[in-house]
Amino acid sequence: MKDKMSVKVIGIGGMGINFVNFMIASGVRKVEYITIDTDSKNSERSQAEKKIFLDTGVKKCSREQAERVALQCESQFRELFKGTDILFLVAGIGGATGSGIMPVILDVSKRLKIFTISIVARPFYLEGFENLKIANTGIKKIEKITDSLIVIPNEKLYNHIDKKEPLEMAYNKVNEIIKEGIESIVNILTEVGFMNIDLLDIKVVLYNSKDTIIRVGEGKGDNAVDEIIEQLKENNLFEGKLENAKKVLINFTAGHDVSLANIGQITEKISDIVKDKNVNLIWGVIMNQDYDKTQKIKTVVISSV
Prior knowledge:
Blueprint: E1 7-12, H1 13-25, E2 32-37, H2 40-44, E3 50-53, H3 63-71, H4 74-81, E4 86-92, H5 96-111, E5 115-122, H6 129-145, E6 148-153, H7 167-190, H8 199-206, E7 213-220, H9 224-234, E8 247-254, H10 260-273, E9 280-287, H11 290-294, E10 296-304
Parallel strand pairs: 1-2, 1-4, 2-3, 4-5, 5-6, 8-9
Antiparallel strand pairs: 7-10, 8-10
Family: Belongs to the FtsZ family.
Domain Tubulin/FtsZ 2-layer sandwich: 195-304
GO molecular function: GTP binding; GTPase activity
């Protein structure tokens, strides 16, 4: 059943298209990519197999106009998403396109009983009160329909980048962490692991979740455990906090000689970070021959309250 899982990643608007292009360039497979935008030039630069341009008839549309044209395409979306097991939606949420289109897609997906994970970026404060207002309204609307919501406050980028670093590099750091989270879930569903996690486990952690976060850590050798835990503590680019988690999913990717002691120590230290000692913690290991030579252990943590 695993190899028949259907996972789609939909990039909506400028941020969504940037992310899909990043995923494709990173070589993440076993995923179908779709982009949707109301800007024809933006849509043209998408590298997705399927790109949808929604023509609102104006150069710069409002949220209401984007929503209206998306509603007219409901039957097209329904046909496009049929048979999908998990749908990831990625968008910036302070403008018209993401705020207008994402709720329509989520509504169609809900009727098709598709499990949806929505990843949205909240605008910088300097983008203005109006954009923040649109974002907050959009997030509240999305939260009611999606199965899982992951919020990235752009403001947090200031704490995790060199102030002289180009903006594109800063966004690539966010893209990399989101990519790792999605790729981890895809691998869980499509690869046979030493300790298996399945779709049911993913739903246990992510269904009806709030303050969902993704953390990634990687290490090797004698200091692998400490390196991984340090990275998991630092990679805080999301709105939620690992400390407040009620449900935690840990996916390890490692070579065939990975020790149970290392896996156990990492799991225990993650558990120690979480305040709730009754946390629902699910973990699994995927053996990957590419890691045999490097002897690295990659740890992806997805948690929610």
